[in-house]
Amino acid sequence: MTDASRLCIVTGHSRGLGAAMAAQLLQPGTLLIGLARRENTALTALAKQRGAQIEQWSVDLADALPAARRLRETLAGFAPERFERALLINNAGAITEPAPLRDTDLAALATTLRIDLEAATLLCAAFLDATRAWRGQRRVLNISSGLGRRAMAGSALYCAAKAGMDHLSRSLALEEESVPNGARVVSLAPGVIDTDMQVQLRGADAAAFPERERFAALHREGQLTSAEAAAARVLACLERADFGTQPVADVRELA
Predict the structure, then answer these.
(1) SS (H, E, C) 42-86
(2) What value, to the nearest 5°, has the Cα angle with vertex 230 and ends 188 and 127?
(3) What is the pLDDT of residue 255?
(4) Residue 1 banded pLDDT, cuts 50, 70, 90
């Protein structure tokens, strides 16, 4: 197996959209580092079949500091000219049981906020620090949500975390503009996808979550995108020549 020329780092790669993106990224010449609580054995087999390389780190992104330190140390060990392209995709996300914030367990709020915003922030910092002298192109893709741009009762924390991810991406894009070979950064809403999170939303208590019926209708009317189709659209955005010119974007609005 030859050395990889492309590095892809994906959080939450073990299932859902993350697993679909990881599978599509596993092409010859790619080293993929996946960060999740569980290993995806199918991806290991797929990497071997396609002549790609994969490392799966078992991490808890509710305590992201060790993972961020490990990422920084790992990337610092590569020669600056090793990769033609390096990608960080912050995909991992969690949602509390849909309900008013006042009724939500404080520990659950803290854990979810760490996964949804703190982990992405720390991993961005580690990636941008360790790769600042790299010769190749660097791109950061933060998987956001339309709910970061439209408030929704019963999901205040998730809305706030995704809005924070959007503004983090805007700020990072400005910072990277001022340095040589700065990274391109985008916070992308991927559309409505058929994932476990959708199951949780449409199965919520209607009294605690007024918009439950809207999510139930999306499923009932076949308006949910499969993880595989959504992954293809997201990765097509990542490959665009103008990636980064619009730091906050929606896959449904890109031509």
Answers:
(1) HHHHHHHHHCCEEEEEECCHHHCHHHHHHHHHHHHCCCCCCCCEE
(2) 45
(3) 58
(4) very low
Q: What are the structure tokens assigned to 179, written together?
A: 């340095």
- Is residue 139 classed as helix, strand or coil in its secondary structure? strand
What the block records as the tokens of 106 is 């404080």
Residue 94 has what pLDDT? 92
Choosing from 134, 158, 215, 243, the catalytic residue is 158
Q: In this structure, are residues 215 and 198 in contact, taking their beta carbons and an 8 Å threshold?
A: yes
Cβ neighbours for 88, distance < 8 A, ≥ 6 positions apart: 9, 123, 124, 127, 138, 139, 140, 141
Does the structure show a pLDDT above 90 at 200?
A: no
Per mean pLDDT, which range of 51-60, 197-206, 237-246 is the poorest? 197-206
For residue 30, what pLDDT band results from cuts at 50, 70 and 90? very high
Angle, CA 179 vertex, CA 173 and CA 181 arms, to 5°: 90
Q: How many other CB atoms are found less than 10 A from the CB of residue 116?
A: 25
Q: Is 65 a catalytic residue?
A: no
Residue pair 140/185 in contact (Cβ under 8 Å)? The answer is yes
Do residues 13 and 91 make contact, with C-beta atoms less than 8 angstroms apart? yes
pLDDT in tens, 132-150: 999 999 999 999 998 899 9
